[in-house]
Amino acid sequence: MARKIVVTSGKGGVGKTTLAAGLSAALAKKGARVVLCDADLGLNNIDVVTGVENLVSYDLIDAIEGRCRAKQALVRHPEYPNLHILTSSHSMPERYVSPQPFKLVLNALAPQFDFILIDCPAGIDEGFHRAVAVADEAIVVTTPHISALRDADKVITLLKSYDLSTVSLVVNKVRGDLLASGESLSPREIETLLKIPLIGVVPEEYSIYGGEFACLHSAFKTLGNNLLSGKRKIYDATRKYVGVMGALRRVLKRSL
């Protein structure tokens, strides 16, 4: 039975969708059967991020309204056979969809998969509550910036009102050069501030937009391994910026 994990942030622009896609690909590459679900009925772009926009025949709304079975709405990723994309509505503007029919679609898929990752809309409005209500676990994504941390804290407070088995933290867009020179909050300090367990760190310089999974970053692999094993090994974003050569890289990065 699939673990249903909502990936949320509160604040837009922290790389939540990119992280959900990268984590899904990493899990699929490890052999896990994965559904990546776009729960944003308004600003949906999971299909574009994963590069399957031209392969979509049915979407989440089609499955909810009975125009297709849940499994028919899935798009298998051409490079990762274990990764399936459940896109959001492309035929109409966002409208009210209650959590219950959404949950029925995911429950129909759950016996055939190991993970269902739900990309949550930004903000804490109706779309947030619909996505969280169908999940069993949550991953909160933030960056080291103060505005993102404030929004993450608000989201964590809201998540406490739901019956979730775990709420975990991923710090995204970490600048290893600033971290190495002590000019940025460390992921461990952020973990202490937000009071939820840190399970992943992703450096700023990496992007997977456009479905470019061929050189999947080891940060996503580490995060995927943590979800599979229950461990909490954290990717070291400072590794390129320590020592003499690392100091040179820091100087060069500042000059860009």
List keywords for this structure.
single chain, 256 residues, alpha/beta, eight-stranded mixed beta sheet, 10 helices
What layout of secondary structure does this protein have?
Blueprint: E1 3-8, H1 16-29, E2 34-38, H2 46-49, H3 60-64, E3 74-76, E4 83-86, H4 99-109, E5 115-119, H5 126-133, E6 137-142, H6 146-159, E7 166-174, H7 176-180, H8 187-194, E8 198-203, H9 218-229, H10 243-255
Parallel strand pairs: 1-5, 1-6, 2-4, 2-5, 6-7, 7-8
Antiparallel strand pairs: 3-4
Helix pairs in contact: 1-9
Spans where pLDDT lies below 50 across 5 or more residues: 207-215
Number of strands: 8
**Averaged pLDDT, please?**
88
Strand content range: 15-25%
Q: Helices and strands, in N-to-C order?
A: EHEHHEEHEHEHEHHEHH
Distance between the termini: 48 Å
Task: Label the overall shape.
Answer: globular
**Which percent range fits the helix content?**
25-40%
Give, in spatial order, the strands making up the sheet with the most strands: 3-4-2-5-1-6-7-8
Quick one: biggest sheet? 8 strands, mixed
The SS-based structural class is alpha/beta
Radius of gyration: 18 Å
Number of helix segments? 10
Short description:
The chain is of the alpha/beta class and 256 residues long. Helix content is 37%, strand content 17%.
Task: Please explain how this structure is put together.
The chain is built from ten helices and eight strands. It is of the alpha/beta class. Helix 1 crosses helix 9. 37% of the residues lie in helices and 17% in strands. The radius of gyration is 18 Å and the shape is globular.
